[in-house]
From TrEMBL:
Keyword terms, alphabetized: Acyltransferase, Transferase
Molecular function (Gene Ontology), one example: acyltransferase activity
InterPro entries associated with the record: C45_proenzyme-like, Peptidase_C45, Peptidase_C45_hydrolase
Originating organism: Gossypium australe
Protein name (Swiss-Prot/TrEMBL): Acyl-coenzyme A:6-aminopenicillanic-acid-acyltransferase 29 kDa subunit
The keyword Transferase appears for this protein: yes
Positions of the Peptidase C45 hydrolase domain: 130-344
Highest taxon of the lineage: Eukaryota
Gene3D superfamilies noted in UniProt: Penicillin V Acylase, Chain A
Transferase keyword on record: yes
Amino acid sequence: MEGKLLEMFEVGPCEDDYQLGFLIGQRFCNQIRSRLAGDLILQNQLLPFARTPHAQPLLKALSETNQKKFPRYWAELLGTADGSGVPVLDIILVNFRKEILPFISKTTMISNADTTDDCSDVLIVSDSMAVAAHNEDANVALVGHTYLIKGKLSNGLSFIAYTYAGELPSCAFGLNSQGLAFTLNSVPPVEDEIVPAGIGRNFVSRDLLEATSTADALARIRSSEVSVGHSYNLIDIQKRMILNVETASRSQVSVHEVGTTPFFHANMYLHLQVQQVHDENSISRQKRAAVLPQGSKTDFLSLLGDTEDTKCPIYMTGPTLYTLCTTVIDLDERTLKIIEGNPKYGKVSHVFSMSSNELNLKLVNHAEGTHL
C-alpha cells in the first residue's frame, strides 16, 4: 500500500489562531474529509457514542477544560473544522480520540485492535553519535492522510509538524526554530489511571511546538492535567540531550535522560510506576529490539525496519496498523530526516536543517531517493 506524497504547507504569521487553523483546513480539506469518511474508529465508535446521552457530559467537560487551558489551540481546532467544511464534532472527536475511547462500553467496541496506535523509538547519546529514530505507526486509515505543517508565529518562532488530517499539529513528531524536537509514543494505563475530561494529548503536543527550552517543554508537560498517559522524547539540539518523559494522569511524570546505552521505547511504560494494560505487541517489539544490533545509525534503521516477527513486527504494513514513515533526528548533524517506506533501505524524502544559526527552519533537501 502506498500513500500520497507527503505534502508541506507553509502558513503564517496569521492575524489569529482561528485563521491559522482555517488556512490549514482549507488547504487540506480533501485529505481531512477523506480521512474522516474512512476512519472506522470515528464512524463506528466515536460518532455513535457521541450521539448517546451518556457522552454529552464527557464531551462538554473535555471541550471546556481544553478551551480554558489552551484557548489559542481551541480556536485553531475550530478554524480547521470551518476551513475544511466538516462538522466541528468530527474534528473534536478525532482530536480527543484517546480521551474518549476508554469511556465507550466494551460491548460496543468493534475490536480492541481497532483502537491501538503503536510507535517505536530507538535513542542514544554517546561520544560518537546522538540520534533519535522513530517509526510513526497508526491505523491503516491514516495512510495518505497526513501532511507537514510549517507554521510561523507572530513572535518569530517557526515549527514543522507531521500532522494527521484534521488533528492539531502534531500528535506524531515535530521540531521548532529553538532547536527543540520531539517524538511521541502512546502508552496504555489501566482504566483506574484514566481521569475523565482532562487535558487532551493533542493539545499538549501542540503546545510543545512552541517550547523555548527543554525546561520550558518539561514545564508545559507537567502543568497539563491529562486524562491518559503518554511518552515524550524531548530532543535538545543545542544541549545535545534527549529525555524520555513518561506521563500519566494526576500529574505523574518520570524523566529518563538517554545516555550511551541505546534506549528502545515501544508502547509500554518503562520507568514511570503506573499500572498498565498488558500489550503483547509492545512486549514482542521490546524483546525483538533487545536482540538486534544497535551500534550505529544503520543498525537503528534496520531495527526499525525489522519484520522478522510476522505477528508483531517493528515495521508494520497492515492489515490494521501501518508504519506511515520514519524520522531520524541527528543532534550532531542538526537535521531531521523523514523516510517513507522501510527505513532500512534509507530512502529519504525530506531533510530539515535544525541549525541554531537559523531562526527559520529550512527545507534543505526534498529529493526522493536521497540516502542516509
